[in-house]
Amino acid sequence: MAPRLQLEKAAWRWVETVKPEEIGPEHIDLAYRVNLPACKRGTCRRNCKGNPNCLVGIGEQAWLGEIDENAFHNIDDPNSERRDKNTFVGLTNLGATCYVNTFLQVWFHNLELRRSLYQCHNSRAQEHNIESDYEPQSICEHLQYLFALLQNSNRKYIDPSGLVKALGLDTGQQQDAQEFSKLFLSLLEDTLSKQKSTNLQNVIQRQFCGQFSYVTVCNECGRSSALPSRFYELELNIQGHKNLTECVTEFLKEEKLDGENRYFCESCQTKQSATRRIRLHSLPPTLNLQLMRFVFDRQTGHKKKLNTFISFPEQLDMGPFLEGKQDQKCVYELSAVLIHRGISAYSGHYIAHVKDARTGDWYKFNDEEIEKMEGKKLQLGIEEDIAETVKSQTRKPKCSKGYHCSRNAYMLVYKVQEEESSDPSRTNVEVPAFLQRLVDQDNHKFEEWCSEMADMRKQSVDKGKAKHEEVKELYELLPAKDGEPYEFIPLEWLKKWLDDSTATKEIDNSFFLCSHGKLHPDKVAESKRVSLQAAELLYERYSGGPRLDGSSLCRECVSQRCRVLRLKNQLSEDYKEVSNMVKRTLSGEGYWVGKTSLRSWRQLALDQLEEDEHETKHSNGQTNGQGPHTNNNKEGNEDEMKTFNEDIVCSHAGLSILETERKLVSPEVWTKLRAYFPKAPEFTQNQEPCQQCLTLEQEEKDNEAVSKMMALDQKNQLLNLFNEKNRPTLAKWPQTRTYTGTDVLYIVPLFFVDEWRKFIRRPTKSSPVSNVGNTLLLCPHGGFMFTYDSLISGDLFSIHKQIPHNISDAGTFHIALLWPSEWEVISRLFIVDQPISIHCFKETTSSGSTTQYTTQPDLCWECRESFLFQQQRDLREYTQATIYIRKVIEDKRMIKEAAPELNASSSEAEEEKEEQPKVDGERDPDFSQVWLNGSIKDNLIPTSAAAVPVTNVTKLGGIRRSTRHRKLRGEKALIVSANQTLKELKIQIMHAFSVAPFDQNLSIDGKSLTDDSATLGSLGVIPESIICLKADEPIADYAAMDDVYQVRMPEEGFKGTGLLGH
């Protein structure tokens, strides 16, 4: 079948020879493609959307032929969740709880521990009603129930969330597995100590506890002192060692105590050099050896993993390391190896290899998955083939028979070698009846679930088979034969009907309706023509509507499309003819046409035809079959689309008064244009221009004359203010006051002066200024907000939006100073809401005469203190601010700050240099606090005129200090927030300077920044701060760098969990 566009063109090719009024039924059938041949199966690779008779490739392939019943459901076989015979039960990983699962499996396989836990008194379990779910409370109860399920559950894996929740562990955060082991055994020991039975009270000590002593010998007198101690595991350093024997030897080796580390000898009664070593006295039946792979790196401040190979034997003789008690059993057999996959201490995965005490088989426990090793041998295999990013990796050493090598093993569990016995009770642990009853209850629930899943699978299969029969029956009836009744069905509905993954909804044809309530011609491509018999069956089973049959073909839409397409074909010929006719001299009556419209009428006609054609197209189902069709898109684009002749329509809908923008054309030209733009505004040659526009034009000319006269008058009266000549400045006022003869200056907002100047320069384009607007510079109480010194130092320009309401936006206002004579003119010409002035006078005291300043209105102390307080607070509570990181080099002094940029004269620049740079975070220098009568007062007296900084005065009377930061070499700007931690800032610095956080020494104003968890606001880092960065030599430790990327928050370990008694 031809492509969709070709089919669409062929459907409307007849319009070239047929006028709208000549359209017959055969033309409507062509437009709706009723007679296109149907496609046969195998001829189309996909469905022909342009052909309503093509019923191939709509999803029928999946239903024709034989179908495997498994295709009718997506439910897994519930038996896949069932525990296999002679296997163990796994544990669900709740997110990052693999470290918990490994230890639970190791402890479960400790038969003595399991047997003892089963003996613990549990009245809650014994009295439990099996009709409700059992909820353990204590740790012992949780562990009892968990072990019973691990032993006799029918499930392939069980959920340990009850125990994890009782311990208060965060399931999304991986923790230190070794620390978890210590804390959990300690908690369990404490819990069991409350049992009545002595055997149960001491089970942890009997299984895991050994004894050693720290022996110290004085080098001076030879006195020996021993400090006995218990251990539950031996923590063995692996750094620099190759095998387990070396690790144990180093653990027991002699240590020298000298220098500051000398030992206080009781005999010598003074500190003496000594030696200290550990002596092993007794070993437990279960010997836990912690390989210290996770160590604290002092240089990085974080933990890192040692990925070094350690060799360990299957049979371990601890006899050479024991002292005394020769009758003690010293030969141990390996029973478990705990593995950590990954190179970082802060990521990876934990698994356990455990030996079955009953059969001697080795199993790998990986959360839900359990794998039995072949040949009753430990096979670490893939655990040692994890991809590494560390470049300097050593090759795996060869291991002799009976030994294993691992760079990921972090704990080894050895059990004392027992004599072979035929007594099965030693390896058989029976689940007590009260616990077995709970396990049976859970197994019953599991079996019910399996049965329910099986029923759901059967229902899906039965439903699928029924649908299969329905499709085979109906699909054969779908094709409509020539000359027989037919209906249109949406293609998407047919596809969903044949797609068993979605529920079949009722048939909805409302999307296909035109504005006349019939089938839209453009929707034929998205519908299929089916036989009346098939349509009857589909509507009977699925309902819906409105039904679209042969009478639903819309003659009005076809006629409108025919007109538009004919005009499109005729446009080029008419354009040439109109272009020639416009050039001829006009004789007789004519019509006004906009020159812009005339230049672009061809494009406007194309746009108009596209719009008309769009009206005959379906507008995305906006009607849904509800009432007449309306083109909402047209309404939205009306302002943007320029229609023909609207360029000579004024705002009052009359003829524009601008004759230069319009042209007279002949009636013949207008007739042709009118055919393309039937709704265009029409103006004959005798049409009068808009009278309202003529009146407004005259009024505008009169107003412009008045504005010009007003501007000239105001300019002449305030000539110096306009030209910025002979302006008063606060900084020079004390010196110039003697020859200017004035003790008072007036203050207005610079905004007022700027707006006034705009009006003077362009009186016809700008509005005249009427109000001075001084209230913007006052507080809500009507008081002035700024002292003489603060106006000099420029804190007016750091007003924040938290300042009281009537000056809340004053941050955009500078001030302008006026001479008294200018103020007199201002008061006469403009509305003055509130005069503001600053007065200068001499005050003679015993220590001499001083210059003092006052303002009118008076200074509002309350609002000023509030303003300064808010100013300091804002420096500590910013959300997005720029700071500068300046890298300094060892043994070199930090470069001094560059002077701020100046746009002033050279003399002013010299005075600017006298200003000392203000220390970040320092209080406003003019606000020297003095306690008078219990309140804070401003010191209104400047120290000296020379000390007053003079800044850029190119703006009239404006006092502006340059705040632009001059970046130096080796300095970079960063965007930060006040609640950001120092740790997060170090990460930003790492990306900017390629210096790792642990190599960064940061300081601000000579104060070191060391607390990584502290926020920048609490450390005194404010906007525009300069932080000095001194970088240490980088550490070539890739694992440590990996840890830095992994760690973002301070490590809290098991703080707040049940393991610490919370």
Automatic annotation (TrEMBL):
EC number: 3.4.19.12
Predominant cellular place of this UniProt entry's protein: cytoplasm
Domain Ubiquitin-like: 976-1027
Domain DUSP positions: 459-554
Gene3D superfamilies cross-referenced by the UniProt entry: Cysteine proteinases, Phosphatidylinositol 3-kinase Catalytic Subunit, Chain A, domain 1
Compositionally biased intervals (Basic and acidic residues): 915-924
Domain of life where this protein originates: Eukaryota
Annotated transmembrane regions: none
Record keywords: Cytoplasm, Hydrolase, Nucleus, Protease, Repeat, Thiol protease, Ubl conjugation pathway
Secretion signal, residue range per the UniProt entry: none
GO cellular component, one term: cytosol
Region (Disordered): 610-638, 900-924
Ranges of compositional bias, category Polar residues: 619-634
Record carries keyword Cytoplasm: yes
Location of the protein in the cell: Cytoplasm; Nucleus
GO molecular function, one term: cysteine-type endopeptidase activity
Broad EC category: hydrolase
Family: Belongs to the peptidase C19 family.
UniProt-recorded name of the protein: Ubiquitin carboxyl-terminal hydrolase 48
Species of the source: Dicentrarchus labrax
